[in-house]
Design goal:
The protein has 469 residues and is an all-alpha fold. Helix content is 70%, strand content 0%.
Length: 469
């Protein structure tokens, strides 16, 4: 059975090719947005150890330093290079899902549904802005760690899995994850505690391995938190979370529900289709219901005893929704959580939901095969299938429309990039206001136009990026 499904690994490759095609159609190789800050902060002396050995280095995500060195040395600081890293990392995450589906004998239809949702273009913003490649890489690391944990939990670990459980949090938290280590560490600590309790209830013995695993999560997390204390920011807040919640509780509810809605349809696509708040609320509540149904399946049928991977993804997705609410409420824009930049984080929970449904589908089919003549549960089973079918259809239709719309937008996005490149080549004759607007760079700490001008000057002097051509 497993050998017959090895072709599953071809699907992530096909998905990657489609992402490359999309980026070719939607982007022209020119810096903008976050790249202005990166150029001013790290270029041209990418080999300078003084810029690496700083106290807040962990918040800057160390693996980025290596990527910049490679990019400037061999690729003339091309955004395409970073985009390629992002697509490759996305393919690695998809390969992890394929590995799990082969291992658990998930059916072909279910696997293709997972891949259709996984490669949705709801992540278009992070895909186009190549500086976000490392976040795709971080999730590939998360998925890999979760699969190692899956093997350890099911007592099917490989030779070095125990060592990997101890080492991976150090590598991922301190080298790759950046701010995403909060949810990653939280999921690990909650999950390890959960595994210990379940093991004790079954065997009346504590599995002390999870204590060691937990220590190896806490220590690198503390290192990261120490590093964040040395970050200098110009941010300030005029109010507290609790005060704002007491004044406008409905705002927080709508923010959270709309973030759930974004797992079905992207923010821009939703604005194009929906005229009122009602559709957002209906879809968001449906997604919330899907989370609850998946959790009910997990605990009612104790699916976690056989496989813990889907439950990990569900908890991770839910924690990401909460984290975005707590960290972005201060913008006072209730649709802020629908931004494409958060799709990667939220999508994890959807994958967990779909995998839970797939496992339940397999269980039901096995039961029906053994109890063909039993009629009492038929009505309930039919209702289960109908509910699952509706939820899956909504996810597919919503993500499909988001992808369709984004493909339609490629021509306009590329035109904007080409216009930006033309402005870059003539930046000495442009005003600061033109530069700040064209390169989508806004900052309160200094004049945005001057920062754009300085970044373009660095690139021009070294014939990098758009000036290389």
């Amino acid at each position: 059975m497993e050998k017959q499904k090895r072709w599953y690994y071809l699907v992530p490759f096909v998905g990657g090719i489609l992402c490359v095609w999309y980026l070719y159609r939607s982007f022209y190789d020119v810096v903008y947005s976050d790249y202005i800050r990166l150029v001013n902060s790290y270029l041209p002396d990418v080999w300078n150890p003084e810029k690496f050995f700083v106290r807040d280095v962990l918040t800057r995500i160390p693996v980025n330093y290596a990527a910049r060195i490679i990019n400037t040395t061999w690729f003339h600081y091309s955004i395409r290079f970073d985009q390629a890293l992002g697509v490759f990392s996305l393919m690695l995450s998809a390969a992890a899902i394929a590995y799990y589906c082969i291992r658990e004998k998930i059916g072909t239809v279910w696997f293709l549904i997972l891949m259709a949702v996984f490669f949705s273009l709801n992540k278009w913003e992070m895909m186009n802005n190549g500086s976000g490649w490392v976040h795709f890489f971080a999730f590939a690391g998360f998925f890999y760690h979760y699969l190692v944990w899956e093997r350890v939990w099911t007592r099917q670990e490989k030779k070095r899995d125990h060592i990997q459980m101890l080492v991976l949090p150090w590598i991922i938290t301190m080298g790759i994850a950046g701010p995403y280590c909060a949810v990653y560490s939280g999921v690990l600590l909650l999950g390890y505690g959960f595994c210990m309790v379940i093991t004790w209830r079954k065997t009346k013995k504590w599995d002390k391995r999870y204590l060691a695993y937990g220590v190896c999560v806490i220590l690198p997390l503390l290192c990261y938190l120490w590093s964040t204390t040395h970050v200098k920011t110009g941010l300030s807040s005029d109010g507290s979370l609790m005060r704002q919640f007491l004044d406008t509780p409905g705002y927080f509810v709508r923010f959270f529900i709309k973030s759930l809605c974004s797992t079905v349809i992207g923010g821009e696509a939703a604005e194009e289709v929906f005229g009122t708040n009602t559709p957002y609320m209906i879809i968001g509540l449906m997604v919330g219901g899907a989370y609850l149904l998946a959790l009910w399946y997990q605990f009612r049928y104790k699916l976690y005893e056989k496989t813990v991977f889907p439950l990990i993804l569900i908890v991770s997705g839910g924690m990401n929704h909460v984290l975005i609410l707590l960290s972005r409420w201060s913008f006072l824009i209730e649709s802020y959580g629908m931004s494409s930049r958060y799709a990667l984080q939220f999508q994890v929970g959807v994958l967990g939901i779909l995998l839970t449904f797939a496992l339940m589908w397999k269980i039901r089919r096995e039961e029906e095969a053994e109890e063909k003549k039993q009629q009492k549960r038929d009505r309930w089973r039919n209702m289960e299938k109908a509910v699952a079918a509706v939820i899956i259809a909504v996810f597919l239709v919503g993500n499909g429309y988001t992808t369709y719309r984004e493909i339609r937008m490629t021509i306009y996005r590329k035109e904007a990039c080409i216009n930006r490149a033309n402005i870059a080549l003539d930046f000495e004759n442009r005003t600061n206001e033109e530069l700040a607007a064209a390169f989508e760079y806004h900052t309160s700490s200094a004049d945005a136009g001057d920062l754009v001008r300085n970044a373009l000057t660095i690139l021009k002097e070294h014939k990098w990026n758009v000036f290389y051509r």
